[in-house]
Amino acid sequence: MYTQALDARGSDALPEDDGALQQRFLARVDAEEKIEPKDWMPARYRSTLIRQISQHAHSEIVGMLPEGNWITRAPTLMRKAILIAKVQDEGGHGAYLYSAAETLGVSRDQLVDQLLSGKAKYSSIFNYPTPTWADVGAIGWLVDGAAIMNQIPLCRCSYGPYARAMVRVCREESFHQRQGYDIMLHLAQGSPEQKRMAQEALDRWWWPALMMFGPSDANSTHSGDSQRWKIKRFSNDELRQKFVDFTVPQAEFLDLRVPDPQLRWDEAKQRYEFGPIDWSEFDRVLKGNGPCNAERLTARRHAHAEGAWVREAASAHAEKQRRRAATAAAAADQEGVR
Ligand code: FAQ
Prior knowledge:
- By secondary structure, this protein is mainly alpha-helical.
- 66% of the residues lie in helices and 2% in strands.
- Strand 1 (264-266) and strand 2 form a beta hairpin.
- The protein is globular and about 85 Å long.
- The protein binds Phenylacetyl coenzyme A (FAQ).
- Phenylacetyl coenzyme A binds at residues 51-52, 55-56, 59-60, 63, 90, 121, 123-124, 139, 143-144, 147, 150, 211-215, 220-223, 226, 232, 236, 286.
C-alpha cells in the first residue's frame, strides 16, 4: 500500500521555495487536514518526519531488548505469556513505523543501516539495564506510561500515515502500561523483599523516564518547526510535566517513594514541582556512553546477521509469486486472443 506512494515523487520535484505551495501546505496544516504521502510538502517537513519516525521505529525495536531479557525468567507462566505478547507488540510497532517512514521516500534498508552503523538515534531509555523482575514492571508502568503521554498527541500529527499508525500503537501501549503497573502493585503489596525490589526499580527508572521526553524546551532544536507543522502538539517540557502530574499519585498508591527530594505539590499552579534533571547523563547516553549502548547495538547487529536467511527466503518467495502471477496473466491474455 505504502510503496505505491513512492512512485509519485514527481510532485516533490517542485521548487521548495515556491511561496504558493508553502502557503497552501501551511493552510492545510492549520485547517487540520492530514498531509498524505503523494501531497506536496516542504523538504524540511519531510526530513523532520523521516528523522522522528525512524528514531521512533528504532526505539521500538531496540526497546524489545531490555524486557526480552526477562522472557525466560518471568516468575509465572501467565507473566511469561503476557511479556512475550508485549515484546512482540513492540516489534509490530517498529514495523508500522518503518512502513510509515517508507512513505516519505526512504527505504527500510537505509534506515536499518543507520541504526546498525550507530548513526541513528533511538530513545535514551533503552540503554539502561534490567537487573530484576521489578524492572520489567517499572518499564511497563513508567516507560510505556511516558510513551503514551508522548504518543497520544501524535495520533493528531499532521502526517496521515504516522498519525494512523499511532492510534493502534497507543491502544497497545495502554495495555503495556497496565501490565507494568500490575507487576509493581503485586510487588509493592508483597513481601518486604519484593517491595524493596519495586522501590529500587522506581529509583533506577524515574529520572531516565523523565529524560525520555527530550531536552528542555530551551535546548530542543526541532520543537519550533515540529509544533508549527503540527507534528508535535506539545513541547517536551509540557509533556514531561503532564507525566509527572499523572504518575506521582500512582507511586503514592503503590506506597513507593519517588526518588526526588525536591518533589512537591504546588497548590497555586496545580502541578508538581520537581528537581533538576541531570542533563549530563542524558548527553552521555546520547553520545553512546550509557550503561548498555554497546550491548544494545551488538544485540541488534547480531539479530540482523542471524536473520539474513529469513530476508533472503522472503525475497525469493515474493519473486516466485511475482513470476507465477506474470505467467498466469500472460496465459490469460493468450486465452483472450483465441
Ligand atoms: N533519546 O529537538 P528535540 C517507547 C534527540 S517509544 C534519544 O527535542 P524532537 C515504546 C532528538 O532526536 C520511545 N534522543 O527533538 C516502548 C534530537 O536529535 P537529532 C520513543 C533524543 O524530535 C516502550 C535531539 O535530541 N518515542 O518507549 C531523545 O523534536 C517500552 C534534540 O531533541 C518516540 O520516539 C531521547 N529521549 O523531540 C518500546 C516518540 N530526546 O535528531 C519498548 C516520537 C531527544 O537532532 C518498551 N518522538 N532526542 O540528532 C518524539 O516525540 C520526539 O522525537 C522526541 C524528541 C520528543 C523524543
